[in-house]
Amino acid sequence: MTKHILIAEDEPYIVESLGFVLTHAGYTVSAVRDGQAVFSAVSEQLPALLILDLMLPNKNGFEVLKQLRSDSQLKYIPVMMLTAKGQEQDKNTAEQLGVDAFMTKPFSNREVVDCVHALVSLDSS
Amino acid sequence: MLSTNFVLLTAFAYVIVLFLLAFISDSMSRRGKDTLLRSPLIYTLSISVYCTSWTFYGAVGSAARNGLEFATIYLGPTLVFIGWWFLLRKLVRIGHEHRITSIADLISSRFGKSTTLAVLVTCIAVIGTTPYIALQLKAVTTSFEVVSNATQTGILGVTLGEDTRAGFWVAVAMAVFTILFGTRNLDANEHNPGVVAAIAFEALVKLLAIISVGLFVVFGIAGGIDQVFEYVPAETLLQHSDNFGTRWINLLFLSGIAIICLPRQFQITVVENSNEKHLRTASWAFPLYLFLMSLFVLPIAIVGLAVLPAGSNPDMFVLTLPMWADQEALALLAFIGGFSSATSMVIVASIALSVMISNHIVVPLALRLPWVQLDESGDIKQLLLISRRISIGLILLFGYLYFSFSARSDALASIGLIAFVGVAQFSPALIGGIFWRNAAARGAVAGLSVGFILWMYTLFLPSLAIDGGYLSSFVAHGPWGLKWLRPQALFGLEGLDPLTHATFWCLELNTIVFVVVSMWTKQSPLEKLQSALFVDVFRNKRHSGAQILQRRAATKDLFRLTQRILGPKETHKLFAELTGGTIALNDLPPPDPRFIDHVERRLTGNIGAATARALVSQVATGESISLDEIISLVDETQQVVEYSQRLEQQSNQLKLTAEKLRKANLKLQELDSQKDEFLSQVSHEVRTPMTSIRSFAEILQNTDELSPEQQQRFVKIIHEESLRLTRLLDEILEISRLEQSQLGINLQKIDPEPVIDRAIDSCRGLAQTSNVDLTSGHREQSLFVQSDGDRLHQVIINLITNAVKYNTSNDPVVRIESFIRDEHFEILISDNGPGISDADRVFDKFSRGRSEYPAGTVGTGLGLAISRQLIINMNGNLDLVDTDMNGAQFRITLPLAKH
Fold this sequence. Notes:
The structure holds two protein chains of two kinds.
Chain A: E1 4-8, H1 12-24, E2 28-32, H2 35-45, E3 49-53, H3 61-69, E4 79-83, H4 88-96, E5 101-104, H5 109-124
Helix pairs in contact in A: 2-3
Chain B: H1 4-30, H2 40-47, H3 53-66, H4 71-83, H5 85-97, H6 103-110, H7 115-148, H8 152-156, H9 165-182, H10 193-222, H11 225-230, H12 234-239, H13 246-261, H14 263-271, H15 278-295, H16 297-307, H17 317-324, H18 328-368, H19 379-406, H20 412-424, H21 427-435, H22 441-463, H23 470-477, H24 498-520, H25 525-535, E1 549-553, H26 555-579, H27 593-607, H28 609-619, E2 620-625, H29 627-702, H30 708-740, E3 748-750, H31 752-769, E4 773-776, E5 785-787, H32 789-805, E6 813-821, E7 824-831, H33 863-873, E8 877-880, E9 889-895
Parallel strand pairs in B: 4-6
Antiparallel strand pairs in B: 1-2, 3-5, 6-7, 7-9, 8-9
Helix pairs in contact in B: 1-7, 1-10, 2-10, 2-15, 3-16, 3-18, 4-13, 4-15, 6-7, 6-21, 7-9, 7-18, 7-19, 7-20, 7-22, 9-18, 9-19, 10-15, 10-16, 10-17, 10-18, 13-14, 13-20, 14-18, 17-18, 18-19, 19-26, 20-22, 20-24, 22-24, 25-29, 26-27, 27-28, 29-30, 30-33, 31-32, 32-33
């Protein structure tokens, strides 16, 4: 069974490119575009990894992460965070909230796939 | 009925008592037993030399003629002693510090030890005091005649006998007394304890006399206080409507000035003062004395007017009332009271004047006359003594002459007032001199001269006029018939009583000339120094001029000079200080500037500042005034004040600056964080399309098995995102430009309606493809706004495009309307779409009001910000109207153009 990855991102083209790359790498992919929809999607789908954009409409990535980490069921799901702002401070905040990987846009596809592999296999081992 | 001889004998006996008292006091003082003599009480009593026979007799006369007017003569000094004690204290302190010998000395010393001023003030003082002394002689003579010719007619009818010889002998007696006791000490600054004691005793005598007469009149004649007032006819109390009028105020003012400026008051209050603290007692005790002196004035006047036959001289009521009641002993006491008032005034006044004359006129003159040889030891001392004695004789002679000229013309009070106005001329220079640093000698000379000449012309001259004489027609018609030069209506100033008229012109022009000339004159260095020492007498701690006046002198010359003035004994004592005790005249060390200064100060006490300086300058050479020192002294206090003011200003400015800086800093911080935020947003907005571009480019690069459709789509996305990036950068540039200035906006008077129509037309195509109903609602017509047509067009298109693009309604409508409201033109663009969720931030950069938008339709997030900035730059506004309806309504507001 292929591993499932949930992408929370509001930019449709980025969802499309990530979806293509990760599907190509052997994952199944689904996406949500609104911050408020992430938590329910995660609890429904229980993905092997959540790729979470920081600047989501209605509820930003930090808030989503915090909510996940405080949920006993969902807190072990690995989270890779994406941001276009590229500020050091954001990375620190994310790490304090318990993010597993932090990636700044624009990223290379290779990097993303490697990181996803690492996080997912860690999880499965 | 008192016999002439008996009265004479009594007066003589009284004088003997005075002599004895003065003699005892002098010898007590010399033996150092003078604690009583130096008490504040004696000081206060001696100040009452102010109450002369004018007040003793004349106050009742004044009350009988002019009602309450007499009170001003007591109220003026009372106000000064209670309210202006700081002025008196300053005068006394200056007097001590500078060994001042007279009012002329003080004024001259203050204005750079000016000899001219000393002479001028002395002359004015002598001329101004002459009528006053005459007044005393007149009072004594009249009272003597009244009390010794006690026939009924004598009491009632006689104001003054034709015979003024009695006055002459009175003058002689007073001169002898004054010469004996007033010229014992040469150093005017060393006090005359005998004289002071005699004056204090006389103060008690006159108080006792007037109170005795008053008590007798109230309780003996009237029969009680209430009864006194029954004598008063109602109209008498009411008739003097000028109470509290201009004359009243003028008198109050004059008497207040007189207590400071009268030479004899200055002599007693300042020169004879042995301890500054005595002023504290005097400031309440002297007003109390005046109160007691004035207590019975009104009752005596009232009863005198009522019981004595019409035509009685009210100036003599104090005397004639007891005589009318056959109280001879009381009449004699009253006579002695009046006599003592007159003698005390004459004694002190002639001492004061003789010091001035000898110091400021005789000695300087003698020093300049080639045939006067003054080389012997103590010769100047002798000269001083002789000239003082002669001066006293002359002063009394002048007084007597004036008395015999004007004897028949004036009541007591008016003569006294003439003197008051005369000495009041000193007040601008005196008061200005000790409070105003820039007051200059030339100003003082000019002011005093003008005031004095006007006084002579408007007051002194008319006082000598006798009915029918040349002077009286002069007074009535003016010189050569020139009406505007009439002495009592000068320059057409009529309607004032002569006294107020004269006071007005003299003092006003005196003060104006003094101030104006002072302001236009540069002070000499010495003047500057003295000015600083006087004005800041409480601040500068006994600055001897030594640090400032640098000069050298041969010890021998200085010694000889000192000896000429002080005599050998005093001089040896003085120079012993220089050598430290031993007196070996041949090898005295050369005097340093400090010692020269010390000698000059010592001489100043004897001969006045101006003369002392002139003499010392004869033997001292190389005088240079250290300008730096003067400046430092003069400016010391001023600088401190200015410096602290500057400091305060600076600290205030610093505070202001700090506050401004703090605000600017806050603003900068805000701007900085705004900039950071903006950059971070820009970064985000740039990175987002870059991410897609990079990612799809890598896919295209690294993925082999892509379908042509896929390839095509990915390339199209890359292209689209590249365009988005370009658009974004363009708009960032544009908003930055718009925010910085209005450049690029071309404001003109335009009709906005065609612009709106054009914008609607431009959007028709988009609306049709989006299936949106684009309609025009209410539209205004024929109006003008200040705007830029192209930019307005751009904004409207932007708003319509947004409204069309994001309208997700099933039946989408976009409506454009325009109105005129509150002098403004409004364009409304409304839609029935989902509305704006975050209305507060819709105009912020990179905020997207709508949460959902399909891929490819995404804007830069700058459109609305740019639109709003454009409208703001047109002096209008773009906002979101809060309506009840669904959808969003944007409103452009523009100012109407003036027709």
